[in-house]
Every structure is written in structure tokens, then in C-alpha cells.
Amino acid sequence: MLGPVILxxxxxxxxxxxxxxxxxxxxxxxxxxxxxxVDDIVPVVEELTAxxxxxxxxxxxxxxxxxxQAAAARDAYLALIARLAPLELGERVELSVKLSMFGxxxxxxxxxxxxxxxxxxxxxxxxxxTVTLDAEDHTTLDSxxxxxxxxxxxxxxxxxxxxxxxxxxxxxxxRLAAAGSRVRLVKGAYKEPAEVAYQRKHEIDKxxxxxxxxxxxxxxxxxxxxxxxxxxxxxxxxxxxxxRKLDEYEFQxxxxxxxxxxxxxxxxxxxxxxxxxxxxxxxxxxxxxxxEKPANLRFFARSMIxxx
Length: 308
Known about the structure:
eight-stranded parallel β-barrel; alpha/beta
């Protein structure tokens, strides 16, 4: 399988330099990351929301090596919130953050990440919206869930992400569903060992459905993070079975993938949120998009060949 190979390449400085230098790369990256600056991204926000879509905004970048970079990440999100304020979109545009960007992996990283992310959550709340904490590799999750729990004491709308391929996720889902929190369910996009995660697609899909049923039957707000038509249909059926109204759950998909499906779901009255990333440190995000879906890799390869 190519996925694990691509995920390994996402951590390679040599591959980063090689792919970043390829003339066609920017054209392909633009499919998934529509801008590098706040000025680039505001027109995208306006266009998507005008089409009935909602967004969750991610400032890309994960390889933090010092506290000053973590502070810069915090400030980048605060600048984004300041630019969103005049648009008065409220919860139609929320934020997604990776705690690794806020210093989680540094010495004293748990406390540092909490200190850096709190002002972002506060500013988002003042804007009438919220923040979702993205899930990263399994070694970071206990810290992420502890920060999530701490933030929810003052900002109960703070969301988090769980990953279907991890063995622990069914238990996490039961806990979070009972707590009434906002939970985005994804399959998972990190290279995880067989000791902690399912490795085969059919196993991951089955786990996804089991976890989604738990979320739908609970008291929280499920966010279905998938592009898989079968899982989307199953999600709709589980919502109907659980007696949920259309505004009691939502779908989430990545910018640049299945755009027509975004519009179709929104036109049917579903809440459809587009995960929209921007920034200059795009490499890790881009490589995981290639690893997640073979069609993305084929798209990149065809572009490399046709432009090479």
C-alpha cells in the first residue's frame, strides 16, 4: 500500500525539498490549499458561505521547534479571527487547530499548548464561533483530550476529533457522546502501528460505522468527516434512526475534494462544513491528503507527468 510510504515521506526533509522544488507542485497544492495569507483566504470564505456552505479554518504548520514558533501560530489564528470579525458569519466559520502547532511536543508542551490555544478559543467565542481540536498521532491524544476537557469548562462548545482506525476510539466516543460535546469523526490520516490501530480498509470502515452510531445515539453533536459516499449514506440513515433533525449533526469534507457533493448536501438542507486550510507550511498537510485517497495521488502524478 502506498499510503504508509507517503506518510513516511511526509516526515522526510529530503522529500520535502524535492517535492517543494517541483515546478508543478504549487498548481496541485492549490487544489487543496487555496491561499497562503489571510488576504488570500477571505474571498474564499465569502464565496463558500455565499453558496450555502460552512467552513472550518486551519492554518497549516506542525513542525514547531521552539516556543516562539508556537506563539507565532497562536498569533496567526488571532489575526484570522480579527479578519473574520467584519464578515459577521458567526458559527458558519469555525476554526480547527493542531496542538502540535501550539507547542505540544516541546518541553512542558502540554501546559504551553493550553496557554497558547486558550486565547484563540476565547477570541473565537467572542466572535460567536468555536474551535475544534484536531487529532494527531496516537501519542498526543491523552494530552489533547485533557486540554479539550479543560477548555470546555469555560467554553463548552469546544470540539475535538476522534479517529476510527484507533482501537481506543470506541471508548473515547462513548465518553464524549455522553458529555454532549462536539465531535468530528474521521478515519485517520497518520501512520499508526498495528498494536494501536486497524490497518485494513474494511476494518476501519466497520469501526467508523460503530463509532458513528455511538455518536448519533448520544447527546453530543456529531460531525461526519468523510468523503466516502457509502459512509455518508450510512450517516444519514443513522441520523434518521436516532431521530436527529438536520441541524443536529453535520458533514465535513476537505476543500478541493468532491466539491459538487458539498453543494448537493447543502442544497438538501444538511449542514455541510468545508475544512479549508491555508498558509505557507503546507507540506505535511498536503502529503496526508495524498495518502488518504489513491485518487489524490493519481491526480498529483498525472500533473507531474503532464507538466514535467
